[in-house]
Structure formats: C-alpha cells, structure tokens
Amino acid sequence: EKGGYDHFMYKEIMEQPEALANAMRGRVHADEGTVKLGGLEDVMKQLEAADRIVICACGTSWHAGLVGEYLIERFARIPVEVEYASEFRYRDPILNENDVVLVISQSGETADTLAAVRQAKEAGVLALGVVNAVGSTIARETDAGVYLHAGPEIGVASTKAFTAQVTVLAQIALLLGKTRGVLSDADLKENLEALAKIPTQIREVLEQQAEKIEAIAREMRLAQNALYLGRGVNFPVALEGALKLKEISYIHAEGYPAAEMKHGPIALIDRFMPVLFVATREATYDKVVSNIEEVVARGGSVIAITDTGNRGLDDLAEHVIEVPKTSDAFEPLLTVIPFQLLSYHVAVMRGCDVDMPRNLAKSVTVE
Ligand code: F6R
What we know:
GO terms for molecular function: carbohydrate derivative binding; glutamine-fructose-6-phosphate transaminase (isomerizing) activity. Homodimer. It is an enzyme of class 2 (transferase). Helices cover 44% and strands 17% of the residues. By secondary structure, it is an alpha/beta fold. The two termini are 31 Å apart. The structure holds fructose -6-phosphate. Fructose -6-phosphate binds at residues 58-61, 105-107, 110, 113, 157-158, 243, 247, 363-364.
C-alpha cells in the first residue's frame, strides 16, 4: 500500500508527477491551446463577471490559496483575497452579490472551511470548491468546483495535494484570463505548454536532487530553528516549507517574504540557524541575492533553491539546489519539492513518525 516505500508521505512526494498529470488530464490541451474545466461550465458566466474572489482555506491549502491569489490576479486581473477559513467565519465578512467564495480543501471535511461555504451560501454568494476527496461534504455543499484527482493522500503532511491544488488554481486562472480577454491566445498556449511540462520537471527534481537533499538534511537535522524566505509567488512556498518542517520534524521554522527579514527575523541569524531561500532568476532575483548576502555577512548558513544552471550563488550559499526553469508563475510547483523532501529526510533522521506526527489529525473536523 505504501508502494514499496517506508512512508506514505514519501510515496506521495514521489507520485506527484502522476498526480499532477491526473489533475490536468482532459483539461489542459497544450497543443490546441485550450483549457476545459467541466465542473465550472455551469457557473462560468458568473465567475467571469466576479468583482472579487475570496479564497478560504486552512494550513497547506491556505498556502495554495496564496499562490492562487497571485495566479488569478496575474492572469485574469480579478482582485483576490485569501482568508484563513477559521477567521473568516467569525468576522462577519462583507460579501457582495458579485463576489465569489472559493474554498480549497484536500479532505473536503475541514470544519472551518465547510463553515465558510455555508456562510457564502447564506449570503447568497456563489461558493466554489477545489477539493480532492470525491463526494466529501465540501464537494457536496459547494455550488460547483474542480476536483484535484490527485488520489488519496494518507500522510498527515500534505504534499501532492498542495501541488495539485496549485495546478488546478493555475488552470482556473488561465481559463478566466482567456474568457475575460486578458490573455491572448498565444500567451494562453505558452502557459499551458509550461504547465503541461511540470510533471516531467518534477520528476527531474526528484531524481537529480535527491542525494544532495539527503546530505543537506543530515546537516540540518540538529537545528533548533530554521528560517524560510521567498518573494512573490515563492513567498507562499517559504510558508509551506516552514510548515512542512515544523509539523513532522518538530524543528521550529518560520516563513517570511525575503524583504521582511530586516524588519525583525534578521535578529535571529547566527551560524546555528539554517536560512532557506527560494532564489530563482525572476523579477526580484537581485534583491533576494542582497538578502542572501546580508545573511552570510552575519555568519548565517544559506541553503538556496535556484533554477538550473545558475552558478551565481555558489560562492554565497552553503548548498544550492537546482530546479528546472518554468514560467515564473508556476515556479511554486517546482520550488516546493526540495522543501518537501528535506522535511521528510530531516524528520526520519530525527526518528519522528512522519506519517502520524504528534498532535495532528489528517482532517480537522472540529474547530
Ligand atoms: C499540513 C496539513 C494541514 C492541512 C489543513 C487543511 O501539511 O496537512 O495544514 O492542509 O488541515 O486540510 P484540508 O485541505 O483537508 O482542508
């Protein structure tokens, strides 16, 4: 049942190429330059005309929502807000007729996320779901939605559900970009081609970086704290990297937007705290490199994820992990992979039960 692996979490990390191919099957037609989401067809007119999309979710699914915000705003130019479902339900949220609430949930059973669906429906607002578990309560109660088709996720730490959620949100963003006339046919096709390549590129990361990541984990396993930094669409990846580490290895970790470092977290830096950067060569790369220099100048030890072939960090970072180049909007799908593997190995080396971390449940059906 664990596919020959020791843990479900590892199996689920390794099956991401397949899970993401399934999340795109019959939907992404890169050769034709079209994207079809059957689950949204009936509500497309309303969704397309939305004044605002409010994404509600918890934990890792909330991190996927933050990536979704970036993707929907970038490709479809619809304003998006991302809320913790647990906060949304208690703040008497302002919902107007042309708003759309979109919830994201792997299990489809998370109590706070379900409450957000009910709140949206009570306010007479369209409620959509991006859900993995077929026939789950959230899938049944939402007006429409898109399934992940990622297959069951058993390990308590969410891995393939996160990347499948981002893949589905990317498809929704591209579809809306097209129907709203924001994206040209050429841009749409180019992005669909980039998305279609992701499963193969994840396989490359899993194969080519595995040994290096295990070696880094051996050094990191004794750390008591870790800081994860990223910018733009990779900021949520920093949050997700930190969550993965803390929940299964019990090492305290925090994620921040890289530029926020000097507003507080920089005080923590010493040679005992690993600082993990997502530093791909995109718009803010030079600024991220300055942040890396600031950490190094304070004796911090840097682990950097960058795109293949970038030798610019070799003299600064202790370790450089390479992921293939993709459209910068889809980078989270590749940059998160080393963080998942790293957390897994660190936790195993510390003797932790990675599939059943203490105090955590796979689906949180109470608030
Ligand atoms: C983290 C994790 C949790 C869940 C959260 C939401 O690895 O698994 O943070 O992401 O409890 O669960 P779902 O997506 O089932 O609503």
